[in-house]
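[SOLVED] Need 3D model of a four-part complex

Original post:
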Amino acid sequence: MAKTVVLAYSGGLDTSVALKWLQVEKGYEVIACSVDVGQQEDLTEVRARALATGAKIAEVVEVQEEFANEFIARAIRAGALYENRYPLVSSLSRPIISKHLVEVARRYGADAVAHGCTGKGNDQVRFEVAIRTLAPELEVLAPVREWGFAREDTIDYGLANGVQVNANRANPYSIDQNLWGRAIECGEMEDPWNSPPSDIYAYTVPHGSVPDSVVIGFNKGVPVSLDGEEMPLYLLITRLNAIAGSYGIGRIDMVENRRVGIKSREVYEAPAATVLLEAHRQLEDITLERELAHTKIELGLQWATLVYDGLWYSPLRMAFDAFMEEASSVVTGEVRVRFSPNGFVVDGRRSPLSLYDYELATYARADTFNHLDAEGFVKIFGLGLETWSKRQGRVQP
Amino acid sequence: MAKTVVLAYSGGLDTSVALKWLQVEKGYEVIACSVDVGQQEDLTEVRARALATGAKIAEVVEVQEEFANEFIARAIRAGALYENRYPLVSSLSRPIISKHLVEVARRYGADAVAHGCTGKGNDQVRFEVAIRTLAPELEVLAPVREWGFAREDTIDYGLANGVQVNANRANPYSIDQNLWGRAIECGEMEDPWNSPPSDIYAYTVPHGSVPDSVVIGFNKGVPVSLDGEEMPLYLLITRLNAIAGSYGIGRIDMVENRRVGIKSREVYEAPAATVLLEAHRQLEDITLERELAHTKIELGLQWATLVYDGLWYSPLRMAFDAFMEEASSVVTGEVRVRFSPNGFVVDGRRSPLSLYDYELATYARADTFNHLDAEGFVKIFGLGLETWSKRQGRVQP
Amino acid sequence: MAKTVVLAYSGGLDTSVALKWLQVEKGYEVIACSVDVGQQEDLTEVRARALATGAKIAEVVEVQEEFANEFIARAIRAGALYENRYPLVSSLSRPIISKHLVEVARRYGADAVAHGCTGKGNDQVRFEVAIRTLAPELEVLAPVREWGFAREDTIDYGLANGVQVNANRANPYSIDQNLWGRAIECGEMEDPWNSPPSDIYAYTVPHGSVPDSVVIGFNKGVPVSLDGEEMPLYLLITRLNAIAGSYGIGRIDMVENRRVGIKSREVYEAPAATVLLEAHRQLEDITLERELAHTKIELGLQWATLVYDGLWYSPLRMAFDAFMEEASSVVTGEVRVRFSPNGFVVDGRRSPLSLYDYELATYARADTFNHLDAEGFVKIFGLGLETWSKRQGRVQP
Amino acid sequence: MAKTVVLAYSGGLDTSVALKWLQVEKGYEVIACSVDVGQQEDLTEVRARALATGAKIAEVVEVQEEFANEFIARAIRAGALYENRYPLVSSLSRPIISKHLVEVARRYGADAVAHGCTGKGNDQVRFEVAIRTLAPELEVLAPVREWGFAREDTIDYGLANGVQVNANRANPYSIDQNLWGRAIECGEMEDPWNSPPSDIYAYTVPHGSVPDSVVIGFNKGVPVSLDGEEMPLYLLITRLNAIAGSYGIGRIDMVENRRVGIKSREVYEAPAATVLLEAHRQLEDITLERELAHTKIELGLQWATLVYDGLWYSPLRMAFDAFMEEASSVVTGEVRVRFSPNGFVVDGRRSPLSLYDYELATYARADTFNHLDAEGFVKIFGLGLETWSKRQGRVQP
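Solution:
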């Protein structure tokens, strides 16, 4: 009796050929599973393609709301930017997709789970570590890594095996997109000196747009409203993607360090992510105490690396999130973002819990700060260095 | 016989009144010392004003080149942004000004050094810690902190004592500027919800501009050329301030955490700093090994906090710089910056020492990466979490 | 009408003289408050001395159990050792004493709180920051810092004002002790090259002792039993102080960095703390996943510095504790400690949640580890350095 | 024509069988290379055994002095303890052995390098990453990992192929030793609840001993003398191993986290390492400024993890060492260590560059510290928390 595998199915070339290959070369019955993380594709059509390619069952799972509330919200709270720049677009979707692959596998009593990642990227790490952690009893298959085809070979194998291949041999880009952003790689961008082609963008196509500013409301570190209108996070992100994207905001062009030891050139579009992370940080500026704020920046960097590396389901991520949740309990308030073509600024922030104290900060007569306390403070604060200078005399440039 | 004090003299209201106050109230002979860190003021005129206000001697010290090479260059190499955003405009100038105040004091055998800072800001800390570390034998005076006048009182004292006061009572802003940027505070900005007034900017006044892109060359982490033309760093910064400023690039609006325990709203203009720090980081992306790159980001944050807090002359800063110098030995190459109104992107970077390896990174047939090694890698990489899941079963969200 | 102050009263020279001084020099009515944190003194007698010295009211507050459960337990969970060595003996007692001083002040409607610390130590920082944070409306007085007496002057002032002074002018040591340990400073130890005198110890006086080993049980990172017998933490610590102290275990001789910029020689005795922190760490070794364990060590150091610096009541300490609590949810099990004169080892640890996996770790035939996966792992793990070597060729020593 | 491999040869069972196996199964000509890192074995005899087992060439390389000066000295300077406890005994020897394997391979024009490590330990990572980084052109072979024999199989293969096997089937321990310590694993210790057998120790066999104290001199963070007698570091370590070992000092019993995702029980003996690291730290206590000292502790932990993980030859280790070298420039002075059975204390430390300042630290009348400065210091230092308490009111336990 044939074993069953649940395949993460996107409808693209690689997973379509994988769907066939698992049947032909490995003798599996395949359950295709397509997870809607906001990639803006017609998953009904994707489902039909799966069945046409021989899937025994084709599941479509809608998780946009869960993705926003359980994954993106934590990333915002943590202020997560890998290498201080990448808002973890694909890194965040892999663990939730893995979770649902495992759920489908358990529902149908499947023996294995398969993904369509190659052997040189991060996503294989994210999928496999997540799946093995969630379900150590399931086998994990990686057909694309195993067959080792170049792109042309994949097309040829697909054509030879009756896969409906609508891949354009001339389209050289590899794309992954979801609610939180869009990643584009390959083609001429593989030379990091080349400018990205102007026609690759989809989330950030500038056109004159209104409104020119928006007020974002946060509750405990999570966005909850736009211009005073409360809405679910996934919807808020969708709207903000449209607004900020229309100004061309949120393009990121970088060479990043993959977990597997190689550098890769990546271009991202993440309009809502870019704006929300900056707005969140500005709200933290008025609500977090200094030492907490500084430590949170460092732990946020570590959080981002951990999740980038595929370690979402890990006790360290959970402990970091306990820190972040406690820290974020006061990050409630509003931030005003002002857009202009190609750029935006936060030019206002306020909170009922603000630690900004006009009476202390002002240089006007309202001033309540005791200037003379500062004299003692500065002397003691510098005392260790004064001793250092006297004793070791190594003061340099 | 009267004691002598060297006063850091800017020519503004506070230090002009201080110059008089130190004579009248404290009986000092005053040596005014004005240090040119690129603040674009006529220091000849400032010097004349000092003498007119009773300074026994008025020194003008030109340090732009030293400021760029010994202070700003280290900040670029460290990637220094306080709280991930502020490029340390005033923080960097205080230690070099302190150094020259001490030199002047020693040259003339003065007894004390004085600065014009209030008791609630960071600059008093920077000046006093630096001066006491460089010259524990000198007394440090802080007339503005000591007299405790509000702005109006200062003007009145000045008028009453024959100080040539050209302060505009209506101008509510406090400004500090140098080669590396410009800081504006006070006025209506003291409410962090208010947008900054549109007329406060000087370094970032947008007007249609050429060129629309520039290639910045770096050697060991320090900028050395623009579009292939080598030039001293202070000149390179001056030119880039003009170019990037003409696109309105480099405005920063934030609430920051001062060392003395209060939050303050600050608006900065730092066109060259903003562009150079991003370009430098992008060059690091292709030249620094992953673990080094990640650690350097964390130490760069600590470097920035240390210098922000006034601890430039300290053994920790020196040890950090030894780390940064060693790490930066390979950060040599070129970065292309493309400007548009209100924004810019780095869209190309290259280096003879680049660790980006096309053969490893590409998905085309040139690929030399062994995809199957990855299978073993991922299994071992996730082994600890697999055990965790089996034994502790605490996998969450 | 006289204002009222609550004085932290230990019964020693400084606070006895302070009790009088506050009445005589400042005109306060004084409420003496003695907090029992396990210092093993007769507080009934202390109370009587307070009343004899003019206290209007003398309160004795018993907090040993709260001290153990709310303060020491968190320190154990965090693995807190300041500068990797000092178990925070006095640092932990100051915040709980401050809390009860504030409670007493509020109960009696007092106007101020006073402590007996000098101006050069850490304890003034701990008391004042805690009190101002807990009760910004209360004034804080520091008579010992304010009067600036040397020890002899204090004795003279006391004698002259009818204070019952039983201080031995020849006893040069300053001592603070509680449940968690004992601190001894001053005298000939002020030269860090001198050995501590042999007669200064009280908690660690070696004498042949049974038992020679003990099994300590932990639940979620907190000690709960000795040799299988469950008991409250404060009692467990008391017993372990006796056992380990009888072997001479727990002496710490160090020069530490105070918050106020000076170095001081300190000798501590902390038998239970030394044993419990090591036992706890050993239990973590088998229950914490690697990345979590490593991060927790770094945050534990930061926790210790924060608390040492007097910042117990702070949002960063609370966020760290949320991290520690989540991380510690699996730190349950038993540790066997074996004593010998002057030393001890942990030579056994076990847990129902242990991540130690015999099948994976053994070199015997039971081995289930796939050795060949390791080949791929090592190649990918070192790939970045291989590229570094090829491209940058900077391999050194 | 046969290819040539350089085998790291210890003379033990595994590498003796590997020597034969590489000839028989792989057709290599084998050059045996035995590196003397202070393992106290007769390498002349080891060399003879290599030749008797078919080695074409057998090299013995004496590197004790280089090992001490270039590797151990850096570990001491960094204060390196993996997981705050393990002084990196084997971790430090692997990179120097790798370096000499590569040198021998290049001298003889060999094609490959081989080591005798299994697939589940750290040493395979350390050897292979080091060798590939030092010589990307050389193949790396891991016969023991490849053949996958259990211990009994190895013995049988050896006997069947004429290898002189003097392994005792009953001796269940795996041992690695060098100048810096000795590691013992396996046998009944594979259950972490079992006490180590009493007969496994060699470096720490207690017997009444003189002297009972020793003064260790350091220069820039590196030990240079014992009781005033200057000597090379490797000799100093050898002597101190004898002295401290005779008191039974330096036993470490722990469960550690290997790089390959498993936990293992390890017992170490490291008398000199234990004493020198503590003495070094105590000297740092009086010579390093506070902020530098605290940062150095954190970076030292990271240094230790990096080297434990096999990343000695890496740009991050080099940058860390630049930090450590700069920081250590003042760590010069003397430390007195006092031994007792099973334990030792540092009870004196002094330095011409000491930052300990009697005038500041003393409570006697010599006191020069201005106690009143402290009042202002404490107020400003706690100001942020006071504001936090007033505005957010979240003060807890």
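Edit: Chain C has a mean pLDDT of 93.
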